[in-house]
Amino acid sequence: MSEIEFSKEEKALIVNRIQLYFSEELKQSIGRFDAEFLLDFFSREVGAYHYNRGLYDAQAALAAKLEDVQDAIYRLERPTDFKR
Predict the structure, then answer these.
(1) DSSP letter at 4?
(2) What are the residue ranges of helices labelled H in the chain?
(3) Using one digit for the tens of pLDDT, what is the confidence trace for 49-62?
(4) This prediction's pTM
(5) How far apart are CA 31 and CA 15, in angstroms?
(6) Which of 16, 38, 60, 79 has the highest count of CB atoms within 10 angstroms of its CB?
(7) Distance between CA 45 and CA 61 in Å, rounded?
(8) Which of 53, 55, 39, 56 is nearest to 4 (CA)?
(9) Region of residue 79 (phi > 0: left; psi between -120 and 50: alpha; otherwise: beta)
(10) Phi and psi at residue 52, in whole multiples of 5°?
C-alpha cells in the first residue's frame, strides 16, 4: 500500500481542523508545525486502520449491490425442466 498523501490544500485544511479541535475541545493552542507533525503521525500510525475500514465498507456495499443484481437476474429466469 502506498503512503497516504494529501495535497497542500487538503493538508492545510486538516491542520486547521486539528488546531481548531485543540483550541475548542482541549483549550490549548497548537502551532501549525505541531499540528502537521500530529497529522503525519496519525496518518502513518492510524491511517491504515481507517483506510482498511473504508475498504471493508466498500466491499460490503458492493456485495449488497451484487446480490440485488443476482436477484434481478433470477427473477428474469424462465421456467424449464433443467435442474439447478
Answers:
(1) P
(2) 8-25, 32-45, 47-76
(3) 999 999 999 999 99
(4) 0.69
(5) 9
(6) 38
(7) 26
(8) 39
(9) beta
(10) -65, -40
